[in-house]
Specification:
Layout: E1 10-11, E2 14-15, H1 29-48, H2 52-70, H3 74-79, E3 99-107, H4 111-119, E4 131-137, E5 140-146, E6 152-163, E7 167-172, E8 179-188, E9 195-204, H5 208-217, H6 222-239, H7 241-244
Antiparallel strand pairs: 1-2, 3-9, 4-5, 5-6, 6-7, 7-8, 8-9
Length: 258
């Protein structure tokens, strides 16, 4: 899957605000649900037919699935049409929408060591299996994830609160394919053994709550997945010598201008 470039700049040592270069969402939730339902049915029917017509139906169904999952329609974009509700920059997930999760685990390592490992976002795919890659530049990052029905989703995010070794908080940028916000907290364990790590996530999956239900239908339960990711993080930190190594300087990556 080709990586979309973002335009980056600096103002007084900080990144100038830049919107992702992929198209913003322009399809509302009702249309997305209809596209997913109709696209899924067409794709399944087409795949069940061993013919050229079946292949064409499956391709059409795939296109509708993509429209529903991403909320983007190329025809709407060409005509300058958008049925999606306005999305303000103040928050990445509007109140009352999306899915919220919170999970904690105790890790037998110092808080600063855990914070440093997590703060290097390139380490995240080592314990979150659905995340394929994370590239970073300062407080900006680009995430690529594999979603249940075979598509890859990508989004840009920014760190909005960074207090070592206590908390890291982030949110996705306007126009991303996935609206999300979250934080990870590192607190000394009450029994004095290690650190209690708490992850709070709120996200609006493609096609909203319908998308979350669709993911569960395909066997992907977000809360169980997060719990499994944290168990993997605990195992990695407690057993891996690489994880215990000093935190390197975060690599900077310059994306070319489109």
């Amino acid at each position: 899957m080709a990586t979309t470039a973002i335009r980056s700049g600096h103002t007084n040592g900080r990144h100038a605000a830049a919107a992702p270069t992929w198209a913003a969402q322009n399809v509302n939730d009702m249309e997305r649900w209809a596209s997913i339902a109709g696209g899924g049915a067409l794709a399944l029917y087409g795949l069940s037919r061993s013919s050229v017509a079946g292949a064409l139906l499956a391709a059409l169904g795939g296109g509708l699935l993509y429209r529903g999952l991403t909320g983007r329609c190329s025809m709407y974009a060409a005509l300058g049409i958008s049925t999606a509700p306005p999305h303000g920059p103040a928050t990445s997930v509007p109140a009352g929408k999306g899915v919220k999760m919170q999970k904690s685990i105790q890790v037998n390592r110092p808080a600063m060591e855990l914070y440093r490992f997590w703060r290097n976002l390139g380490n995240v795919p080592k314990f979150m299996r659905h995340i394929q890659s994370v590239t970073t530049e300062g407080n900006w990052s680009r995430w690529v994830a594999h979603c249940p029905v075979g598509f890859n989703l990508q989004w840009d995010a920014e760190i909005i609160n960074d207090k070592p070794p206590e908390v890291i908080a982030w949110r996705s940028l306007p126009g991303s394919q996935v609206d999300s916000a979250g934080s990870v907290h590192f607190q000394p364990a009450s029994n004095g053994a290690g650190t209690r790590v708490t992850v709070i996530l709120k996200y609006d999956p493609p096609a909203g709550r319908f998308g979350a239900a669709l993911a569960e239908l395909f066997g992907h339960h977000p809360e169980a997945q997060l719990e499994e990711d944290l168990r993997r993080f605990k195992q990695l930190m407690e057993t891996s010598e690489t994880a215990k190594a000093p935190h390197p300087t975060m690599a900077r990556m310059n994306w070319p201008a489109p």
